[in-house]
Amino acid sequence: MARMDALRENSVVHLSLDQLEETMALVTHSGQILAFNFSQPWAKRTADDPPALLPICQSFHVGGIIGVDCSVRRPFLVTSGVDKSVRIWNTSTHRLEMCQYFSSQPGPVSIHPNGLYVVICFPDKVLVMSVLWNCLHEHRVLNLRNVTDVKFSVGGKYFALAHGNLIHLYNALTCDAHGQLRGHPQKISCFQWAATSPYPTDNGMVSCSLDGIIINWNISELRKDGEYADKRYQYRVVVADDKNMWAVGDPASSAAEAQCKSILREMDRFGL
User: Fold this and answer.
1) Among 54, 82, 177, 202, which residue's CB has the most CB atoms within a 10 Å radius?
2) How far is Cα 250 from Cα 156, in angstroms, rounded to an integer?
């Protein structure tokens, strides 16, 4: 089945030859636009020696995008897709800077605020990679399976990985383990770095899970600063600033569904 899908994506749906009959352009089923030299000695060509195909315009992901993150200090945006590629885009020029394919499908990705490092989650491992001018170079391998989310801190000192009901913290420079955040009884659905002051420090974090629990964390002391639980809702996304917190969730029952179309409660982050 996988082979048939690959053949379908690479199949040609349209051909066009220029007036001088020198260049043949083609469009594949996946939307890629390619070209090759048509004015060549075809008698010398064999099935094992096809002509070189060159992209006419920059390539895009084939299929859906899984992970996306943006650098703060450089105009870089990183994406991962079901086509097993990780791509770095320039948000200033709107062009593709780099594309690298992997043997397994990448999942969540995060790019350092300085744009020099990328963390990529795979089903069986986590790769910390350096961003070079034409490729991604492996810097460190972390043996964690099925990581569901990854984020660099605002200042870039740490990066965090959501692994089941735990959050693993690592030093962004050395990739050494900094600690773990324990407190969620069920799988973590989302977490975000947050500061305790208007200045963007790396001393706070908020997280949520599908069992209706939101936790405010103190990163300096690796402990809870507060907890809010509402079993009526399955929280999927949570964000916070230095004062407030916002969470989005689904109703866990039909009784709660009627209330989810309005604001139930505005929560003071430090009043949990």
Assistant:
1) 202
2) 32
